[in-house]
Amino acid sequence: MAKFKIRWKMNAHKIVLILILLASFSFIGCTAKQEQYQTSAEKFSFPWDQGEFSDYLLATKKYISRNRFFLDAQHRKLEIEANSPFELYPDPQTCPISGKPEKGLLLIHGLSDSPYSMRDLAEEFSKKCFLVRTILLPGHGTRPGDSTAMTADEWYQVSTFALETLKKDVKHVYAGGFSTGANISTWLALKDPSIRGLVLFSPAFSLKWEYPTSLATLDLFIDWLNKNPIEDYAKYTSFSINSLRQFYITSARVQEEITKGNKLKIPVFIALSGDDSVVDVSYVKNVFQENLDFPGNRMMYFTQSQPSPQQQEDPRIVYRVGNLPDQQIASISHMAIPNRINNPHYGKNGDYRSCHMTDSNSDYEPCMQAERASLWHGAWGSEAEGKIFSRLTFNPYFDEMVAMSLETILSPKVN
Q1: pLDDT reported for residue 216
Q2: Measured distance CA(348)–CA(223) in Å, rounded
Q3: Where are the beta strands (DSSP E) in 56-179?
Q4: C-beta of residue 108 within 8 angstroms of C-beta of residue 159
Q5: Is residue 103 packed enough to be buried (19+ CB in 10 Å), middle (13-18) or exposed (0-12)?
Q6: How many domains does the chain contain in total?
Q7: What is the CATH number of the domain that holds 96?
Q8: Residue 386 domain-assigned?
Q9: What is the end-to-end Cα distance of the chain in Å, rounded?
Q10: Measured between alpha carbons, how far is 289 from 353 in angstroms, rounded to an integer?
Q11: How far apart are CA 241 and CA 18, in angstroms?
C-alpha cells in the first residue's frame, strides 16, 4: 500500500510572530486596499424578533446582490444563489404531508463557507421528509473584507432566529452543521431541549493549535492571516485575523459546557477524519465517548488504515479507510466530508480545484496545471513522491454517511 505523508500547519504562535514581523513593513509604501478586502458599504440588518424565515431569505439574497464582490460579472446569478440561504421542503412524491411537516433540520455552514456547502446534505434529508433550512453566517457570502468585522454573537443571533422559526413550522426540530456550524448547533442543543438530534460534520470543538493570546490584539497591526487568490465563488479562501478569533469563540463555548459536565441526552451523529488538518480529533473522539454517551450515537471515522479489533475501543465508532489508491485518494480532508462525489462544484469532476496545500503554496501551480486524470487528492499537506495533490473536496463515502446519520437521529428509542 502506498505511503502518504501529511505536513500539518505550522504552530499558531509561529504564524503570529511571522505576521507581526511582516506587519512592521506594512506602514511603508501603503497602497489602497483592494475592493474585495474592504468591508461592504452597508451591514446586514433584520428584525429578528418579528421577521419570518421567508422574509429573512429574501432580505439576505437582496443584501448579497447589493454588496457582493463578484468573481465573474457574467455569473452573478450563480454566485448569489450559491451564497444565499435556502430551504427545501420534503419531497412531495415520497412524503405526503397534511399540515406541518413532521421533521425540520437546521444546517449551519462553516467558517469562510456558504450555504452551498450544505446543499448536498439538505437535498438528501429533504428526500427523507425533513423541511431543511440553512442560514448565512454574517460576514460571509459577500466579500472577504466583511470577515474583518463579523462577530460570533451575530452568528448565534441568526442561528437562534432560524431555530425558533423552524419550531413554529414543524413538529420536531433537529440541527447540525459543518465545522464552525457544528459547534454552533451543538451549543444550541446544549441550551435548547427541544432539539431532538444532531448531525455534525467535522465538528471543530477543539483545534490542532492552541489559541495564541496575541490574536486578541494582532489586528492592531495586520488584518489578514493570508490573502489567497479569489477562485471559489462558494467560499472565502483568504482568512482574516478576526475570523479566526470568532471561530475560536464557538469552540470555547462548547468546551465551556463540556467542562461544566453538561451532556446531550439526544442522538448525535458525527463524521470526522483522522487526517483533519484543522480539528483536534482526539479531543472530539473523547467528547463523543465521555459526553455524548447516548447508546444509539454513531461516529463515522475516516482513517489511513483499518484499525485492529483491539484499537476499536467504542463499538459506536465505525471506521472507514480514507486511503483509496484506486480512486487516487490518499486521505479524507476536513472540507470533503459534506460534499457528494458528483457535486458540480466540489465533486470529482467539478469546476473547482483546491490547490492551496501548504503554508508556502509551493505546490499551487503544479496542482492547477495538472491534468485531471493524473491528480491525486488528500487532506491539507498531503504529499508523496512523484504525485501532485489537490485538497480533497468530496466524500467517497457520502451516501453511506448520510444513511448512517439518518439511522442515528431517527432511532426509534427516542422518537
Answers
A1: 65
A2: 34
A3: 87-88, 103-108, 130-134, 172-178
A4: yes
A5: buried
A6: 1
A7: 3.40.50.1820
A8: no
A9: 44
A10: 36
A11: 13
pTM of this prediction? Answer: 0.91
Residue 212: inside a domain, yes or no? yes
Residue with grid cell 459534506, as numbered in its chain: 338
Q: Give percent helix, percent strand, percent coil of the chain, each to the nearest 5.
A: 35, 15, 50
257 domain residue, yes or no: yes
Which of 35, 91, 6 shows the shortest CA–CA distance to 383? 6
Q: What is the pLDDT of residue 214?
A: 59
What sign does the CA torsion over 107, 111, 116, 120 have?
negative
Model pLDDT for residues 374-397, shown as the tens digit of each residue: 999 999 888 888 899 999 999 999
Residue range of the domain that includes 226: 51-322+397-409
Assess if residue 136 is contained within a domain. Answer: yes
Whole-number pLDDT of residue 413: 55
Mean pLDDT (the chain, rounded)? 88
| Cα 341 to Cα 347: distance, rounded to the nearest angstrom | 5
Q: For the purposes of burial, counting CB atoms within 10 Å of the CB of 176, is it exposed (0-12), middle (13-18) or buried (19 or more)?
A: buried
Can you list the residues of the chain whose pLDDT is less than 50? Answer: 1-10, 13, 15-32, 415
Backbone φ, ψ for residue 318 (5° rounding): -105, 125
How many angstroms separate the CA atoms of 4 and 150, rounded? 38
8 A C-beta contact, residue 143 and residue 194: no
DSSP H/E element including 320: strand 317-321
Whether 124 and 201 have beta carbons less than 8 Å apart is answered as: no
Stretch (H or E) spanning 155: helix 152-169
Q: Are the CB atoms for 269 and 296 separated by under 8 Å?
A: no
CA distance readout (Å), 122 to 125, 139, 343? 5, 22, 13
Phi, psi of 41 (to 5 degrees): -65, -25
Name the residue with cell 451516501.
Answer: 399
Q: What are the DSSP calls for 220-257, one per residue?
A: TT-SEEE------TTS--SEEHHHHHHHHHHHHHHHHH
Helices 152-169 and 241-259, packing angle to 10 deg: 60
Written as nine digits, the cell of 61 is 439574497
Whether the CB-CB separation of 393 and 335 falls below 8 Å is answered with: yes
The whole-number pLDDT of residue 212 equals 62
